[in-house]
Write a structure and sequence with these properties.
The complex is a heterodimer. By secondary structure, chain A is mostly beta strands. Chain A has no helices and eleven strands. In chain A, the strands form two sheets. In chain A, strands 2, 4, 5, 9, 10 and 11 form a six-stranded mixed sheet that branches. Chain B is an all-beta fold. In chain B, about 0% of the residues lie in helices and about 50% in strands. In chain B, β4 and β5 form a beta hairpin. The relative contact order of chain B is 0.33. Classes of the chains: A mainly beta, B mainly beta.
Chain lengths: ~110, ~110
Amino acid sequence: GQNIDQPTEMTATEGAIVQINCTYQTSGFNGLFWYQQHAGEAPTFLSYNVLDGLEEKGRFSSFLSRSKGYSYLLLKELQMKDSASYLCAVRDWAGNMLTFGGGTRLMVKP
Amino acid sequence: NAGVMQNPRHLVRRRGQEARLRCSPMKGHSHVYWYRQLPEEGLKFMVYLQKENIIDESGMPKERFSAEFPKEGPSILRIQQVVRGDSAAYFCASSPPDEVYGYTFGSGTRLTVV
C-alpha cells in the first residue's frame, strides 16, 4: 500500500518563496506528481518526477529523493492566485493508479 | 479537444434515493478513474476502469456503489440508497494507455444528500 504525508496548511507572503514537503512510503513506486487544486475546482497537473533531482518549470520546481521517500514543491515569487491546495501523489508499480496525500492548503497573504 | 466532462456539476438527493454520476473521458483516453473528495480532505481512489472492464475497485465501498464504462457512452458511477455520508465531490479522471504524465481530471460532481 501507499502512505503519503504532507502538511495540512501553510501560509506565506506574496513575493516570497515557499516549500511544500511530501514524504511517502510505498510498496511500489513509478513516479511522483504534484497537482494544484483551487477551491471547488478540478486538480490540475503541475509536475512529475520519476528520477532523483530537481525539475524546474517556471516559478514552480519539484524535487525527488527516492532513497528518502521525499519530495518537495517549491513555489517562487508567490502570487495571490497561488492560494490553493497542493496535492502530492504517487503512482504505483503497475503504472496506472495515483494515490494522493491529504493535500496542503496554501494561503498567500499580501 | 474537449476535456474530461462530468455531469451533473451539482446533484442533490434525498436519503434513500439513487445517484448517477457521468464521466466522458477525453478523446483517445481509454482509462477512467473515479475519486471521492470529502470536504477539507484529499482525493481517495475508488475505482479504475477500462472499456467494459473494471481493473481495480479496491477503493469502492462493498455495498451500494457500482461503476461501469461501457463500450459506447460515458462511465457511470452509481450510488444506491444514498446516505448523508455520501455527500462529497466525486472526480473522474482519464488517461490514454501508457500515459507518463498522469491523469486529466474533470470538474467533478458535488453530491449533496439531504
